[in-house]
Specification:
Length: about 160
């Protein structure tokens, strides 16, 4: 049991150090996951990869990746999905180009936002857990805990809560 606790503490400390220098890292992944950096797709081959604004993450069949943000929020990008990291400096803003993500948003300050855009909508959240998918030309939102407001491209809003 002590060994597991020590391994967890070491793992948490290493990610904390990585997050000092950036706002997002690859916490874990399975299968084949690609990252768009330096104008080319690269295979993710290790945990701890530092992600920056404008990087893209793509998961292939039977693959997923967990991203950890500086504020403690996480997203799980499901298989056959693509996400663009749009903003990380003051707010967290992602673009779900295709596929599905599950987010757990925590640790936002009063003036910070966490939002996920799809080609036809924007989900804006605070302290909540939700699943957002965009497949074809259809977006679906499932709120696991908390409240999420979804805006369409016309500015209409739809709130879902548990």
């Amino acid at each position: 049991m002590k060994t597991k606790v020590l391994i967890f503490c070491w793992f948490f400390a290493m990610f904390s150090l990585l997050l000092e220098a950036s706002d997002a890292v690859v916490a874990n992944y399975t299968g084949k996951v690609l990252v768009w950096q330096d104008n080319k797709w690269k295979n993710i081959t290790k945990k701890g990869l530092i992600l920056k604004e404008k990087d893209k993450i793509k998961t292939l069949n039977k693959s997923k990746v967990i991203l950890l943000f500086k504020n403690g929020s996480t997203i799980i990008i499901g298989e056959n999905s693509q996400v663009t990291i749009y903003e990380l400096l003051n707010n967290i803003s992602l673009i779900l180009d295709e596929g599905e993500i599950r987010s757990q948003v925590i640790g936002l300050q009063q003036n910070q936002t966490f939002e996920v855009k799809t080609p036809i909508s924007v989900a804006s959240v605070r302290g909540t857990e939700f699943i957002l998918s965009h497949i074809g030309n259809q977006t679906e939102l499932i709120v696991v805990e908390g409240k999420v407001t979804l805006y369409d491209n016309s500015g209409n809003s739809y709130s879902k809560s548990t």
